[in-house]
Amino acid sequence: MSTTFTRDLAGEVTFLARELKTPVIAETFATLGDQARDAGWSHEEYLVAVLRRQVASRTANGTRLRIAAAHFPTIKTMEDFTFDHVPAASRDLIAHLATTTFIAKRDNVVLLGPPGTGKAHLAIALGMKAAEASHPVLFDSATGWINRLAAAHAAGCLERELRRLKRYRMLIIDEVGYLPFDTTASALFFQLIASRYETGSVIVTSNLPFSRWGETLGDVIVAAATIDRLIHHAHVIGLDGDSYRTRGHRRPNK
């Protein structure tokens, strides 16, 4: 600790920082004080520097907590995504979605395409951007969401669970269409989408075009009603091309 601060003054700053729950101020005030004197900072510049350190730390911690709470199966970023197979118009739209402004508008995002084309990667990357922008996010597969809602329904608290989920500004529903739903699951999925209508954003990934959602939901009427609510305020992006998982294993023709 800097010798410029008296023991009593340093102790008081540490005590006040603890009372304010600002540990970074306690950790940095002395070092920054030395820098301030050496560089000839004003009192205001020194105060800004100390507070900026505390805010930066709190922001970083908040982002880490939101990412952990989102339960992403893995960490994916926009910077790691390969746009080679994505049309230019969709690239521009994805760049716009990465600003997360669609969340304030309660818009949805639907990513459609064959397996391995990067749908889950994009969904998680957008979820990461949302967490960095201070939005609570929750991720699960379509089957995981159905199991969660089925358990709530069996316990007689489905409505309470749907209300609880509204605290999340974004829900990510991955892999719609990989496994067919029975009648109960289809109804629960409709209720999940309907509960988010114009109240919160949803990102959905599916390997099926909308014309085939009747197959996975088991009822064309329920499928139509679900799609209607999902895409009313939605950005729909089609992804095509070779699978990420097989692209790297191709060998050139001899």
From TrEMBL:
<dbReference type="InterPro" id="IPR003593">
    <property type="entry name" value="AAA+_ATPase"/>
</dbReference>
<dbReference type="GO" id="GO:0006260">
    <property type="term" value="P:DNA replication"/>
</dbReference>
<protein>
    <recommendedName>
        <fullName>AAA+ ATPase domain-containing protein</fullName>
    </recommendedName>
</protein>
<dbReference type="InterPro" id="IPR028350">
    <property type="entry name" value="DNAC/IstB-like"/>
</dbReference>
<dbReference type="InterPro" id="IPR047661">
    <property type="entry name" value="IstB"/>
</dbReference>
<feature type="domain" description="AAA+ ATPase">
    <location>
        <begin position="105"/>
        <end position="238"/>
    </location>
</feature>
<dbReference type="Pfam" id="PF01695">
    <property type="entry name" value="IstB_IS21"/>
</dbReference>
<keyword id="KW-0547">Nucleotide-binding</keyword>
<dbReference type="InterPro" id="IPR002611">
    <property type="entry name" value="IstB_ATP-bd"/>
</dbReference>
<keyword id="KW-0067">ATP-binding</keyword>
<dbReference type="InterPro" id="IPR027417">
    <property type="entry name" value="P-loop_NTPase"/>
</dbReference>
<dbReference type="GO" id="GO:0005524">
    <property type="term" value="F:ATP binding"/>
</dbReference>
<comment type="similarity">
    <text>Belongs to the IS21/IS1162 putative ATP-binding protein family.</text>
</comment>
